Amino acid sequence: MKKYIGAIIGIIILAASILLYQNPEVFAKSAENKKPDGEAKKANITTAFVRNVENRQIPITVTATGSLMAKDRIELFAEVQGVFEESSKSFKPGVRYGKGEMLLKMRGDENYANLQAQKSTLYNLITTSLPDLKIDYPEAFPNWEKYVKEFDLEKPVKPLPEATATKEKVFISSKNIFTTYYNVKSLEIRQGKYLIRAPFSGVLTAADITPGTLVRAGQRLGEFISTGTFELEVAVNASFAPYLQVGKSVEVRSINDHSKTWTGKVVRINGKVDRESQTTTVYLQVQGNNLQEGMYLEATIKAREEENVFELPRNLLIDQNKVYIAKDGKLGLITIQPIHFSEQTVIVKGLENGMKVLAKGLPGAFSGMAVELLEEGK
Question: What pTM value is reported for the model?
C-alpha cells in the first residue's frame, strides 16, 4: 500500500513541475496578487512632469527672414560716346572707391575741342563789345571788363555779369553773348559726363566693360553699391502692422550663426497688403561690420505687450486650443485661447495662476488618467 502511495505522490510532483514550466505567469500573478493593494496601484501610475502657471506680461515678437540689400546703389550707364580709358584703379568687381573718387573715364577729345572753340567765341564777343559798353553803359562797363580779365579757357566759365538795365540786357543779347554762353555751359555739362565719380563710398559689384572698349551712349557700364548701410526687406503678418512703427529698434541675426547679431530699425512700412499671403512688407535699416549684400538674416520685431498670458511649448497643444492640467493626481483637459504662435512656443490665455500644466508631452495621455506629479527642474 505504501508503495502505491509513494508512486501517486511522485506523479503529482511531476505534474506540478510540468505545469510550472509551461505557465510561469500563473504563479507570477498569484504572487503579485499577494502584494499590498497600495503597491499594486502605484505600479500603474505614470509620472508626469508639470510646471506651475504664472501669468505675466509677455512681449509679442514677430520673426521674419529676408535678403540684405545695399541701401545706396546705382547702375552705371554711359550718357555719351567715347573710348573707355584705363585709370589708377582697375574697373573690376570688388574694387572699393571713396566718395568723389573717379570710377571711370572716357575719351572725349572731340567734345572738348568744341567746348574750347565756344569759349573762345564767347571771349571774343564780350571783348569786341567792351568799347560800346564803355560809351553807352559806363556804369556796367567795370563789371564786364573784370569778367574779361578773369576769363580762363582752362576753367569752367563763370556766370555772366548781371545786367542793371533793360537796354543793357537787350544790347548784350543782340551781340549773341547769352546764346554763346549757354552753348558753352551745355558743352561743359556734356564734357563732365566723360568722367564718372563715385557718389558715395562703396564697392563695384559688376563691371561690363574693359579699358579700350568703345562705349556708346545708353550702354550699361556696371553696378556700384554702398557698403556702410543696408536694408532688409521682410514680410510680416498684416495683423501686426498696426503695432509696427517707423524708428522701432529690431534685433537682426545671421541665419547660419545666431551668435552674430546686429541692431536695426524700421525705416518704411508698405501700406499695401499682399492678397495671397496677407502680409505687409517692412523695410529695416541695418548697419555694422561683416554685413554683405545678399546675406539672409532673421529679424525679431517686438509688436506689442500682451498682459496676463502664459508661454508653453507648441507640442503640448491638443486640437490647437486645449492643454492638459494635473489636479488631484489626475489629468484634465482645459480649453485655452492661443494668442500668438512662434516657431517653438505658443502664448495663451485662459490658465489660472497656480495651475499645474504639463511641462513635457505624455504619450497615451487622456482625461482622468492617474499620474504622479514631478515638477520640472526637481
Answer: 0.64
